[in-house]
Amino acid sequence: MKQEIRALAFDVFGTVVDWHRGIREEAAALAGRHGIDGDWARFAREWRAGYPRAMDQVRNGELPWTRIDALHRLILDDIAPRFGLASLPETELAQLNLAWHRLPAWPDVVEGLTLLKRQRIITTLSNGNVSLLVDMARHAGLPWDCVISAELFRHYKPDPEAYLGCADLLGIAPGELMMVACHPSDLRAAREQGLRTAYVVRPLEMGQAKALPEFEQNEFDFVVDSFIELARRLE
After folding, report:
1. Class for domain 7-18+103-234, per CATH?
2. Quick check: 156 pLDDT over 80?
3. pLDDT at position 223
4. Which helix (H) or strand (E) holds 178?
């Protein structure tokens, strides 16, 4: 018999916020002020593409524990020359790096989280560092009960310590915690640690319609198109 779901933990980048639009628009605005032309949609995708590789360097010991803000800056410094941004003043590059703190929420998110919060505890479970998640919540009006980051465990998802640590901090069993994400790999790693799972479809995560990741029928507890739908199905 399955345990009651007492809390929901949310992946953030892609699931809660539209990172592609946020990064694309901030990069385009900065470049425009300096008369730099470029494909800022591709810039956003390339910056994001470096994220899992950088985390893996931490996870396998190539790098010491490093916050996501610092990893984002390493990736930015690597790709900036290809987009004509390397000569920008350091203060402006530093501000661009903080664009990840200012990402917009998907249209359903604030209403959906507000509905879900009436029923259960809602928290982040993100690889983003705490200061990033707090800034993002304030910027986008995200009504979290608390902000939980992989930084607290010094283990990035999909390490088990992140999922089990989240349940432990909330004082609940893993089976009482539901992971909510638009990435099946995240959900599968959570499920392996005993968490419940909800897959949220975000076909525009990469800035354009994409084929949905493959998953098995009934692989996840819920498959929904929005946080609002998830709230209704959990009632």
Report:
1. alpha beta
2. yes
3. 97
4. strand 177-181
CATH 1.10.150.240 is the classification of domain 19-101: yes
C-alpha pair distances (Å), 115 with each of 3, 137, 148, 158, 235: 21, 17, 20, 28, 10
Predicted pLDDT at 214: 82
The tally of CA atoms less than 13 A away on the side-chain side of residue 142 is: 30
Contact between 63 and 57 (Cβ < 8 Å): yes
Domain segments of the chain as ranges: 7-18+103-234, 19-101
- Is residue 224 within 8 A of residue 202, CB to CB? The reply is no
pLDDT at 90 (0 to 100): 97
Per-residue model confidence (pLDDT) at position 208 = 84
Contact 202, 229 (CB under 8 A): no
Cα separation, 71 vs 89, in Å, equals 19
pLDDT tens digits for range 195-215: 999 999 999 999 987 777 888
